[in-house]
Amino acid sequence: MTARIAALLAASFAMLGAAGAQEVPAPTFVVGDSWTFREIDLMTKNETGQIIETVVKADAAEYVIDARRKARTWWRGDAVKRVHREQFEFSEAGAEQRGKTIATNDAGCAYPYPLKVGASWECTEVTTWPSGWKIKYDLKFNVEAAESVETAAGKFDTLRISAKGFSNNETNGTGARHERIVWVSPAAKREVKYEIRSILKNGNIFRVEGRELTAFKAGA
């Protein structure tokens, strides 16, 4: 083996080792953590909205996020599984300013932290949307690669995660193929970019939404 080949192999193994060693640990949200996202139609590339989420309460069991889109809502999150679980209308008169529940999920597809390149898992999750639709997702996730991603909020080192499977609307009996690509950053404590596509049995794409981080502020 020549010295040049040996050097190239050593460099390649070093790169593989560095990529394989990168991981995303379980995040800990603290009061003041804040994320601003722009939402995008992936077909037209047009911006469809903006959402700002700010942690207003956090303890060992749960966190509460003030989410502001066109309407203001609260998210109650599971601090152990690190996933949003229940969305409430904002109500000045309600207990802790929470009104009626408008969306829930059973956290069946919460990430199994720490995340590492090569990890994969299968999961089922049931989500009830504000429309009242109850959607069951059957998905297989793969942590595909360590990847640096440019966003409007700056450049982040991330793990790219793909999910493929099916969604079934248990309210009206329709189903679709469902795909996600998510870029998760340890520095931002969550996804900094994602793409979601749902494809009907006839091949028509009916859901093509994206989200990209435009600002992040860490709490105290």
Strand and helix map with partners:
Blueprint: H1 3-21, E1 23-24, E2 34-41, E3 47-58, E4 62-68, E5 72-78, E6 83-90, E7 98-105, E8 115-116, E9 120-128, E10 134-151, E11 154-169, E12 175-185, E13 190-199, E14 205-217
Antiparallel strand pairs: 1-8, 2-3, 2-14, 3-4, 4-5, 5-6, 6-7, 7-9, 9-10, 10-11, 11-12, 12-13, 13-14
Describe the structure.
- The chain is mainly beta and 220 residues long.
- The protein has a domain at 31-51 and 105-217: YmcC-like fold, CATH 2.40.360.
- The chain contains 1 helix and 14 strands, in the order H-E-E-E-E-E-E-E-E-E-E-E-E-E-E.
- The chain has one helix at 3-21, and strands at residues 23-24, 34-41, 47-58, 62-68, 72-78, 83-90, 98-105, 115-116, 120-128, 134-151, 154-169, 175-185, 190-199, 205-217.
- The strands form 2 sheets. Strands 2-3-4-5-6-7-9-10-11-12-13-14 form a 12-stranded antiparallel beta barrel.
- It is globular and about 45 Å long.
Summed up, what is this model?
The chain has 220 residues and is mainly beta. It is 9% helix and 60% strand.
Helix content: under 10%
Uncertain spans, ≥5 residues at pLDDT below 50?
1-21
Strand content: over 45%
Structural class: mainly beta
Regarding quaternary structure, what we see is: single chain
Output the radius of gyration. Answer: 19 Å
**Which sheet architecture does the biggest sheet show?**
12 strands, antiparallel, barrel
* CATH topology descriptor of the domain at 31-51 and 105-217: YmcC-like fold
Q: What is the 3D shape?
A: globular
**The level-1 CATH class of the domain at 31-51 and 105-217:** Mainly Beta
H-E string: HEEEEEEEEEEEEEE
The count of β-strands is 14
What is the mean pLDDT? 88
